[in-house]
């Protein structure tokens, strides 16, 4: 099969490596089947979509809704490169799954309103499928409501008319959406288990998601949670689009 392409932008090696391993494990992929490009490390090379089965965009420390004048040169470069790639991906309806940061990138590219209105603290929250979500093949086998790990400062507050809202939570009405037939983004993290989230809490304790002195309490609130459904989305994605 052709490999999938993971576009990552985490500068911290520990978090980056654990993220890559989680996409391999939950996607049911071998290392040769998931080609990773770390966008924070160097400019994005030319991407030949015909070499890949699909694209996955991982999480990121960047927020698409930040004021342009506050964005670093690195963030501006990554956004510009992703935007240019999405021009082609959307035009071809090429298989795409963006996790968390994918909501901001694909959402803004498609004209969604992405702002700070529906940010969520780090937690496991109940996510419920919409009627459209219950019919979507990427959500096949998932229950109508399931717990998922979240932790984000921005979210979609208004989708464009051509996008389908597939899932929401009490604190965030757009937890997953689809554009055309094959372009998806989730606000929650389908690649995270408890161990992975604990790593990120430690790595990003000073990133403004919570007061740094509360990191241990946030970790304690996560350790007892049983979140097992969201990774099924990754397995559905790789199974559906592997070619």
Strand order of the largest sheet: 2-1-3-4-11-10-9-6-7
In total, how many domains does the architecture comprise? 1
Proportion of residues in β-strands:
25-35%
CATH topology: the name is: Rossmann fold
Mean pLDDT: 94
Total strands: 11
Question: What string gives the helices and strands in order?
Answer: EHEEHEHEEHEEEEEHHH
Shape: globular
> What structural class is derived from the secondary structure elements?
alpha/beta
**Second-tier CATH architecture:** 3-Layer(aba) Sandwich
Q: Can you tell me the residue ranges where pLDDT is under 50 for at least 5 consecutive residues?
A: none
Which CATH class is shown?
A: Alpha Beta
Q: If you compute it from the alpha carbons, what radius of gyration comes out, rounded to the nearest whole angstrom?
A: 16 Å
Name the CATH homologous superfamily: Class I glutamine amidotransferase (GATase) domain
C-alpha termini separation: 5 Å
Number of helices, where a helix is a run of at least 4 consecutive DSSP H or I residues: 7
Helix content: 25-40%
Main pleated-sheet profile: 9 strands, mixed
Organism: Arthrobacter gallicola
Protein name: Glutamine amidotransferase
Pfam family, one: GATase
Domain Glutamine amidotransferase: 35-192
């Amino acid at each position: 099969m052709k490999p999938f392409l993971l576009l990552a932008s985490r500068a911290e090696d520990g978090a980056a490596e654990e993220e890559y391993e989680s996409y391999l494990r939950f996607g049911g992929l071998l290392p040769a089947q998931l080609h990773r490009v770390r966008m924070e490390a160097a400019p994005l090379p030319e991407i030949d979509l015909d070499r890949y089965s699909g694209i996955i965009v991982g999480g990121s420390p960047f927020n698409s809704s930040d004021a342009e004048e506050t964005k670093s040169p690195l963030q501006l470069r990554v956004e510009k490169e992703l935007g240019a790639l999405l021009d082609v991906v959307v035009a071809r309806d090429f298989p795409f799954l963006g996790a968390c940061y994918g909501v901001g990138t694909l959402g803004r590219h498609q004209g969604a309103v992405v702002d700070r209105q529906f940010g969520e603290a780090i937690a496991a929250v109940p996510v419920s499928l919409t009627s459209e979500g219950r019919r979507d093949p990427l959500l096949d086998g998932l229950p109508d409501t399931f717990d998922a790990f979240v932790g984000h400062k921005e979210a979609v507050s208004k989708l464009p008319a051509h996008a389908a809202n597939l899932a929401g939570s009490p604190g965030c009405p757009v937890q997953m959406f689809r554009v055309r037939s094959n372009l998806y983004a989730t606000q929650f993290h389908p690649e995270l288990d408890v161990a992975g989230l604990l790593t990120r809490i430690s790595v990003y304790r000073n990133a403004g998601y919570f007061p740094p002195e509360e990191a241990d309490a946030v970790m304690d609130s996560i350790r007892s949670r049983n979140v097992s459904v969201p990774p099924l989305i990754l397995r559905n994605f790789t199974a559906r689009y592997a070619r």
